[in-house]
Amino acid sequence: MTSNPSGPGPDPAAPGAGTQAPPPPLRALAAPVRGRLALAVGLQAVAALAGVVPFIAVSRIADRLTGGSPADGDALWPLVTAACAAGLLALACGTAAGALAHVADNDLQLALRRRLARHIGRLPLGRLTDRGTGEVKQAVRDDVSALHTLFAHTLLDLVALLTAPVLALGYLLTVDWRLALVAVLPLAAGVLLFRRAMSGAAAQMAEFGAALGRISSAAVEFAAGIAVFKSFGRGRKAHERFVGATEGFADFFSGWVRATLVSSTAAVLVVAPAVVLLLLTVVGAVLVTHDHMTGAELVPFLLLGPAVAAPMGAVGPRVQQIRAGQAAAVRVTALLDTPTVPESTTPTLPEGHHVSMRGVSFSYDGRTDVLRGVDLDLTPGTVTALVGPSGSGKSTLASLLPRFHDVTKGSVTLGGADLRDIPATELYRRVGFVLQDVRLLRASVTDNIRLGRPDATHEEVERCARAARIHDRVMALPDGYATELGGAVTLSGGEAQRLSIARALLADAPVLVLDEATAYADPHSEALIQDGLSALAAGRTLLVIAHRLSTIRSADRIVVLEDGHVTEQGRHDELLAAQGRYARLWEAQRSARPDPADAVPGTAGHAADDIREGSTR
Ligand code: ADP
């Protein structure tokens, strides 16, 4: 919710909701530039104070002109000079404070972004899933910007807003303490009214957040389900929950606004400059007509009086910005505190490419093991297929090999070296992966393919693109291999997958983890992908996450995973003969969807045969 202190309505950020001292994360992040920020704050305070001086000088001049003798005219020049000098000082100090805060903030942002980039580069790959990348984007872009607003703008604004009224009030007290107290009345009334408007704000804010959450989840459901509902002629049904959630929110919010409308509107009105001026003029006129003060003494009240209460209305959004900055600092600190992949104290290079998993257990949350005591060997040049029900841990097990996560117990070795001891660049030269969720860079096709071998020639890139069956599609793009992806040009899921196969072909890692694509609407695209995979598989050690058993019939070893542990392993025929879990899975899939590949061997559905034989058709 954007706060709107100048208009009626509940404002969670208004004064009275309470300003807290910055929590440690904010202070810790600002530590490197604390000195400069403090100096900027000091300069801004001087600027704010100096900014009040011309008003004081003008009121003194008014006093002299109305009450003094003509000879006093000469005495005005020092006041004029003081006003000009103070005005210039205010300008100079304000500019210097702004510049200093911006320079400090710029250095802070640079240092913070560098720290984040270094840290993110050392996070386990498994942290950079969809959720993880959202978190990273939020920290690097949005949160660092929120900190910029706080350090470069809000801090100085607050200093100015709070300093000037203090000096103005102090001066007014020396002129006439009674009218000075009247000038404070709107501020006191405003604070009380805001407090009343904000009573119960915490509970209301919680409900506000919950109501917004309901809208957001109903919106996601609406967007995701609308096609299904419409295709069954039930378009209205799709938006019922969404409309319900928005109506619920509208009812809640109008109830909240109604309950606080009077006090919040009154709070805004009572500190409005026109209202304060009116009050001071009326009371001042009474005091002047009763000879309690002179007309000239009223002038400073008319000049400075509104400044005493006015900042209250402007403090609200600044408090909101402080809270946003605090929340950003907490998130940035949490990301910076996320454990990175530990550096090995005994770096080891693998000898050969035999993969061995021994007693491997893994847990995402430190409580439930999703893998338990897995032993597995991948002999060089063989295809091993992981099968099992959804959620049995296939993807998790495969993700251990490119070190997306480290095992909780046991070990994974490549060529006799524990993965944790193999330097990252050495590991990724040896272990490649092609996953379903292909990430393409916002870069040219060539650069996307060359990711694993930036020094590859154009001929090599093209050869791999041909083998991955993506070359023709690339040539149809506006600039061929130079086409920038991710902007105006995007590739379909199947095309992106073929491009990632070309990338893996070029990187030429001897061990490969392959998450077999589940389904492509377009059989032509699927056939092309299977062709690409066949090219990729030739001569490599392959670990395939198989979603359809028909494609891995001739794998060298099929490993059945259930509930995080291996329950069966062997070749297709052996497992069928054993009449165990695999045989039942096989039957279930066959009866659910007769596989055309069974009838016509060698068609696109028969990828595993192709994979094994290294056919590139
Ligand atoms: P499969 O590939 O066989 O479908 P997964 O390896 O994806 O199985 O999942 C195994 C279990 O681990 C499931 O219970 C799943 O909910 C859980 N899981 C998978 N990924 C994550 C993750 N990033 N964080 C927490 N739990 C996860």
From TrEMBL:
<feature type="region of interest" description="Disordered">
    <location>
        <begin position="1"/>
        <end position="27"/>
    </location>
</feature>
<dbReference type="InterPro" id="IPR003593">
    <property type="entry name" value="AAA+_ATPase"/>
</dbReference>
<feature type="transmembrane region" description="Helical">
    <location>
        <begin position="77"/>
        <end position="104"/>
    </location>
</feature>
<keyword id="KW-0067">ATP-binding</keyword>
<feature type="domain" description="ABC transmembrane type-1">
    <location>
        <begin position="38"/>
        <end position="324"/>
    </location>
</feature>
<feature type="compositionally biased region" description="Basic and acidic residues">
    <location>
        <begin position="607"/>
        <end position="617"/>
    </location>
</feature>
<feature type="transmembrane region" description="Helical">
    <location>
        <begin position="37"/>
        <end position="57"/>
    </location>
</feature>
<feature type="transmembrane region" description="Helical">
    <location>
        <begin position="266"/>
        <end position="286"/>
    </location>
</feature>
<feature type="region of interest" description="Disordered">
    <location>
        <begin position="590"/>
        <end position="617"/>
    </location>
</feature>
<dbReference type="Pfam" id="PF00664">
    <property type="entry name" value="ABC_membrane"/>
</dbReference>
<protein>
    <submittedName>
        <fullName>ABC transporter ATP-binding protein/permease</fullName>
    </submittedName>
</protein>
<dbReference type="InterPro" id="IPR003439">
    <property type="entry name" value="ABC_transporter-like_ATP-bd"/>
</dbReference>
<dbReference type="GO" id="GO:0005524">
    <property type="term" value="F:ATP binding"/>
</dbReference>
<dbReference type="Pfam" id="PF00005">
    <property type="entry name" value="ABC_tran"/>
</dbReference>
<dbReference type="InterPro" id="IPR027417">
    <property type="entry name" value="P-loop_NTPase"/>
</dbReference>
<feature type="transmembrane region" description="Helical">
    <location>
        <begin position="150"/>
        <end position="171"/>
    </location>
</feature>
<keyword id="KW-0547">Nucleotide-binding</keyword>
<feature type="domain" description="ABC transporter">
    <location>
        <begin position="355"/>
        <end position="588"/>
    </location>
</feature>
<dbReference type="InterPro" id="IPR017871">
    <property type="entry name" value="ABC_transporter-like_CS"/>
</dbReference>
<keyword id="KW-1133">Transmembrane helix</keyword>
<keyword id="KW-0472">Membrane</keyword>
<feature type="transmembrane region" description="Helical">
    <location>
        <begin position="177"/>
        <end position="194"/>
    </location>
</feature>
<dbReference type="InterPro" id="IPR039421">
    <property type="entry name" value="Type_1_exporter"/>
</dbReference>
<dbReference type="InterPro" id="IPR011527">
    <property type="entry name" value="ABC1_TM_dom"/>
</dbReference>
<dbReference type="InterPro" id="IPR036640">
    <property type="entry name" value="ABC1_TM_sf"/>
</dbReference>
<keyword id="KW-0812">Transmembrane</keyword>
